[in-house]
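Saturday, quiet lab. Running sequence design on the structure tokens for the scaffold JK sent over.
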């Protein structure tokens, strides 16, 4: 059974991670809630999936099946709620942190780490750039966000230590505790947007000095050192509703 831990993330960190590592767009549609089960459909850039999660005497069991894209679009039309987001899989040690930038129905940034057991999940110490943990808060599941929305997310402080920790992660340096065996993402990650040099086949190097300077400017300009989640949301409707490009990810 996969175990998840989920954390809030400051918007500027999420944008920086996506800019450097790209991401995969997702649309998830959720059917009305039931007492002992939940079901939803996910449209990714190269596949479509139908999920069923049931709760029994031995805990939660989640099953999934790949379905044709046309079926997924039809199911999305009859879902009770929908969430759109871009997911970036960022390596941390032997596993990945899954960074989600949710754009609909509300703007929110989250980071999720998956584990193979409860013991691994309990032994993981969050990295400095992670925000407050919301694993036990039912408001921050994809299902709750899609079906009930979210009034307001708490402010997330920015700090020198958090920025340095994120830069270390982008450079491939991790604390010893991060070397845990966590589940790897199953979907190939392709950048949503690419720099011109990448389109021509050249190598693009990350200038971390420029990144750090930009982040420090943002920290100095944030009121009382706080970066808050935006209340407004972009006018985006199902970025994948008509075409699914091949080759391009806890409810």
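Result came back. Writing it out in full:
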């Amino acid at each position: 059974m996969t175990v998840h831990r989920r954390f809030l993330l400051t918007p500027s960190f999420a944008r920086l991670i996506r800019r450097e590592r790209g991401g995969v767009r997702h649309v998830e549609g959720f059917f009305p809630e039931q007492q002992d089960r939940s079901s939803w459909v996910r449209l990714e850039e190269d596949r479509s999936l139908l999920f069923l999660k049931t709760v029994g005497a031995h805990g939660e069991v989640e099953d999934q099946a790949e379905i044709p894209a046309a079926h997924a679009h039809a199911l999305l039309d009859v879902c009770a709620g929908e969430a759109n987001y871009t997911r970036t899989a960022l390596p941390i040690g032997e596993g990945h942190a899954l960074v989600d930038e949710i754009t609909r129905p509300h703007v929110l940034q989250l980071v999720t780490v998956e584990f193979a057991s409860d013991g691994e999940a309990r032994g993981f110490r969050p990295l400095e750039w992670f925000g407050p943990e919301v694993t036990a808060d039912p408001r921050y599941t994809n299902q709750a966000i899609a079906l009930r929305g979210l009034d307001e997310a708490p402010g997330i402080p920015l700090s020198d230590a958090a920025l340095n920790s994120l830069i270390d992660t982008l450079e491939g340096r991790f604390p010893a505790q991060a070397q845990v065996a966590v589940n790897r993402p199953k979907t190939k990650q392709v950048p949503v947007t690419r720099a011109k040099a990448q389109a021509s086949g050249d190598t693009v190097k990350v200038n971390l000095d420029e990144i750090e300077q930009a982040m420090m400017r943002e920290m100095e300009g944030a009121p009382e050192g706080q970066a808050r989640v935006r209340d407004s949301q972009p006018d985006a409707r199902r970025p994948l509703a008509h075409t699914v490009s091949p080759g391009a990810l806890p409810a």
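Notes for JK: Residues 20 and 249 are 17 Å apart (CA to CA). Residues 208-221 form the longest helix (14 residues). Ask whether to fix the surface positions before the next round.
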